[in-house]
Design a protein that fits this description.
Blueprint: H1 3-29, H2 33-57, H3 74-90, H4 97-123, H5 127-155, H6 157-163, H7 167-179
Helix pairs in contact: 1-2, 1-4, 2-3, 2-5, 3-7, 4-5, 5-6
């Protein structure tokens, strides 16, 4: 493996580790239960991404992929979290300005992740690596979409509910069904 490809993979792993810390900090600071649950779910996603990248970097693992049978599908986990929160999400919770800023900050991070993984997919010569980077870019796009929808909810809950009650849940259900 060339040093530049190894560097890309190492950078990608570090990005995911930074993401774990970033989302852990946001989950701890966020007051809104929906935001807190969303960030906790993203932490689990980032852990799975780092695990996948470590397997790709490992020369001992010829397949380049690790299937963790015990790990729930990130989308299933997110839907489960929000199902369990059900009535708590419906409570009128005052949105803290910091919660909105946290979501905006996370959106910026996800945009950078999308660009990084799309570029890495273009630069690699190995199909397996390219496939992994495209997968991770897709995961970051999913996070961005969830964050955008959440921002709309936090900025104007009443309008958001009037336009499409339960849109976040429906969006996640659509994503889960596409993966099944």
């Amino acid at each position: 493996m060339s040093d530049s490809l190894k560097d890309i993979k190492s950078m990608a792993i570090q990005m995911e580790m930074d993401g774990i810390k970033f989302y852990s900090d946001l989950a701890a600071k966020t007051l809104h239960p929906m935001g807190k649950a969303m960030f906790k779910s993203f932490i689990e996603d980032e852990k799975l991404h780092a695990k996948r990248l470590r397997a790709l970097l490992s020369t001992q693992n010829e397949t380049g992929q690790v299937k963790d049978k015990s790990a729930a599908n990130p989308r299933e986990r997110l839907v489960t979290i929000f199902k369990e929160m059900g009535s708590e999400l419906k409570k009128k919770v005052n949105v803290n300005t910091n919660d909105i800023e946290a979501v905006k900050l996370a959106m910026g991070i996800e945009e950078k992740g999308i660009k990084f993984y799309e570029q890495a997919a273009k630069e690699t010569c190995k199909n397996k690596d390219s496939e992994t980077y495209r997968f991770l870019a897709g995961e970051e796009k999913t996070h961005f979409s969830i964050l955008k929808n959440t921002l709309e909810y936090l900025e104007n809950t009443e309008l958001w509910e009037a336009e499409s009650e339960g849109r976040i849940y429906d969006m996640w259900m659509d994503m889960v069904n596409k993966k099944l």
